[in-house]
Design a protein that fits this description.
heterodimer; A: 423 residues; alpha+beta; 2 domains; three-stranded mixed beta sheet; 13 helices; B: 230 residues; alpha/beta; Rossmann fold; six-stranded mixed beta sheet; four-stranded antiparallel beta sheet; 7 helices; 29% strand
Chain lengths: 423, 230
């Protein structure tokens, strides 16, 4: 046996003519392979598409970060008179921020933020924005491109200056085409100067710390102007909230200390908060979780795909066994002329591979087309990775070899005298 | 190596016994003869005489259970399957009663097949196949499939294929069994030509007409040689 193509070529040609001669039979046999390979690629594309989106949005949260946020506890205690004003007091405190920064090992930095929805005005335009009262470090942790001007600085905080940073979205909807930096907008009752614009990215289904409709002001200015209580009118009653911090983004020194850090923060907060009014999200854990889910998903898909390929392979084996019987005489002739058994094995293996590879090739085309159709008709994200195509195609070739081996060996083991006599 | 250079086939007390149940069937029971290079032999015998078994052994498709068979100097009795295959490929040219051409292959490809297994390069293969087709008078049908040919034409192609690797022995099994008498005469004429060109020809037949073409004769009966004359 040689690796010379001139040796295999006549068999490839013979295999191809054989496939062509039995068009219907070959087509039906190949269908198993086509759907097997096609489904592997399509399923992996759907799985990859879904998990890619999830993983990307988790990664945007930062794998070194821990997100601690305030949660309004169910059935919260009313602090005011039930008749008129309900004032809920809950959530993270400035002290929590200090405690996390100073007592939890491995913390690099903390970014406290308070978020309240307020109406923003520019001349006669109004827009409902989320006012994020935070510290300059926010912009280091939530890395977003600065489109114009600058972000908040320590000086802004110390001066408690009425300056704000808008998002692209806010600019487009509120200032529409004006030269933005240096303009003044109204937030609630106060006037703020716009000093910069950042680009925001709202990501998928995983909660990102920032949103499109953000406007950033310094925490000191926020406290001075708005205080920590907010009042809303809800169906005739005034509902008030007293909330110091909505969120603390804790940035750890390395990813290794993220999970123990999260545990330490939780233990510490539990000690100081009697009500369960906080929650902790660890992007790294989410990432791990998502990757684990993806792996499980891939295993399940792989098993299904494996079964369909197995069925396809059995179909091919069946046809090849029929073909061996049909070609018994040919085998006898070749053996009588002087072909070694191994030559017969190679011939039939190549024949099987011609079937499975052409089936696999059509399957790759089908497998690539299906995700496009899915995305086109349902809008579901799909992602075709090269590895899935290589994998599926490789499996089809492998299936051909594995399931072709038995018929080929059977063909080679025929007694030439008997085979010649076969009618 | 026993025998001389002039001997191409030598059988010494060749036996072929089959065990069927408890019984031993002696298909060949002590056959000895030698065939010189360039001679023309006929092996005759009624059906069931052991003629086919002898043919299978001469054709290296089967091995004797006892005795020795030298073909072109090599003892076939001790060969394994691969060696037997190689021996058939190099030293034997088969011509069968029912032609046994491969139906999917063209005339040219059928003639090329033994050279393909011998590893002859494609261009050389093609050249020699053309030459052989010309020699048997089939040069005008190279791209035809066997099904498109008459019986006589098919047998000519089969003879060309048998000659492809320039074998030591041309072994024909009832080569005219499926042909009408006119065509038979043509085919036997072809064998005569090959004999005259120096080929060793062995024809197995039960037809006295065909037997008459040969110059030496063996008659087999009940697994033994009952007549052998050169």
């Amino acid at each position: 046996m040689t690796l010379d193509l001139t040796y295999y070529w006549p068999f490839i040609k013979l295999g191809a003519t054989d496939v062509w001669r039995h068009k219907t039979r070959s087509f039906l046999t190949m269908l198993g392979m086509v759907f097997g390979v096609g489904s592997v690629i399509a399923m992996l594309a759907v799985g990859e598409g879904a998990s890619h989106q999830a993983l990307e949005s988790i990664k945007r949260l930062g794998s070194q970060n821990i997100m601690v946020s305030s949660v309004k506890p169910a059935g919260s205690v009313s602090a005011g008179s039930a008749q008129s004003t309900q004032l809920d007091v809950y959530g993270l405190l400035d002290e929590d921020d200090v405690r996390i920064r100073e007592t939890v090992p491995g913390v690099a930095d903390t970014v406290p933020a308070r978020m309240v929805r307020r109406a923003a005005r520019y001349n006669d335009r109004a827009l409902d924005l989320r006012v994020v009262e935070t510290v300059p470090a926010w912009f280091e942790v939530v890395k977003r491109p600065v489109l114009a001007g600058r972000v908040l600085t320590r000086e802004d905080c110390e001066a408690r200056a009425n300056v704000c940073v808008l998002t692209e979205f806010g600019v487009r909807n509120l200032l529409a085409g004006k030269k933005v930096v240096g303009q003044h907008i109204r937030l609630g009752s106060a006037t703020f100067e716009v000093v910069g614009i950042v680009k925001n990215e709202t990501g998928g289904n995983v909660r990102a710390p920032d949103s499109d409709a953000d406007v950033y002001i310094s925490m000191d200015a926020g406290r001075r102007i708005f205080g920590i209580a907010s009042i809303r009118w809800v169906s005739g009653t005034r509902q008030g909230e007293k909330l110091e911090l909505s969120e603390i983004i804790v940035r750890m020194k390395s990813t290794d200390v993220v999970e123990p850090g999260a545990k330490a923060i939780e233990a510490m907060l539990r000690r100081f908060h009697k009500k369960p009014d906080f929650k902790i999200d660890v992007p790294l854990s989410l990432l791990r979780e998502a990757e684990k889910t993806k792996r499980t998903y891939n295993i399940v898909l792989g098993a299904i795909a494996g079964i369909s390929l197995l069925v396809g392979g059995i179909g091919i084996m069946n046809i090849m066994l029929a073909s061996v019987t049909e070609r018994t005489k040919e085998i006898g002739i070749r053996r009588a002329v002087g072909a070694r058994k191994s030559r017969i094995v190679v011939q039939f293996l190549i024949n099987t591979c011609v079937l499975s590879i052409s089936g696999g090739a059509v399957g790759v085309v089908v497998g690539v087309a299906i995700p496009f159709a899915i995305t086109f008709f349902s809008g579901m994200p799909t992602l075709i990775r090269l590895y899935s195509m290589v994998l599926a195609f490789g499996i089809s070739v492998g299936t051909g070899v594995v399931f072709g081996l038995y018929p080929a060996l059977r063909a080679a083991s025929l007694d030439p005298i008997e085979a010649l006599r076969h009618e | 190596m026993p025998g001389e250079e002039a001997e191409v086939v030598r059988l010494e007390d060749v036996k072929r016994h089959y065990t069927v149940g408890d019984e031993t069937v002696k298909a060949l029971d002590g056959v000895s003869f030698t065939i010189r290079r360039g001679s023309y032999w006929a092996i005759m015998g009624p059906s069931g005489s052991g003629k086919s078994t002898l043919l299978n052994i001469l054709g290296c498709l089967d091995r004797p259970t006892h005795g020795h068979y030298w073909l072109n100097g090599a003892d076939v009795a001790s060969m394994d399957d691969n060696q037997l295959s190689d021996h058939r490929l190099k030293n034997l040219g088969f011509v069968f009663q029912s032609f046994h051409l491969i139906p999917q292959l063209t005339v040219l490809e059928n003639i090329e097949m033994p050279m393909f297994y011998l590893g002859v390069p494609p261009a050389e293969r093609r050249r020699r196949a053309n030459e052989l087709a010309d020699r048997v008078g089939m040069a005008h049908r190279l791209q035809h499939l066997p099904a498109e040919l008459s019986g006589g034409q098919r047998q000519r192609v089969a003879v060309a294929r048998a000659l492809a690797n320039d074998p030591a022995v041309l072994l024909a099994d009832e080569p005219t069994g499926n042909l009408d008498s006119a065509t038979s005469v043509q085919i036997m004429g072809l064998f005569q030509e090959l004999y005259e060109q120096g080929k060793t020809v062995i024809v197995v037949t039960h037809e006295p007409d065909i037997d008459a073409y040969a110059h030496s004769h063996i008659v087999v009966k009940d697994g033994r040689i009952v007549r052998c004359d050169e």
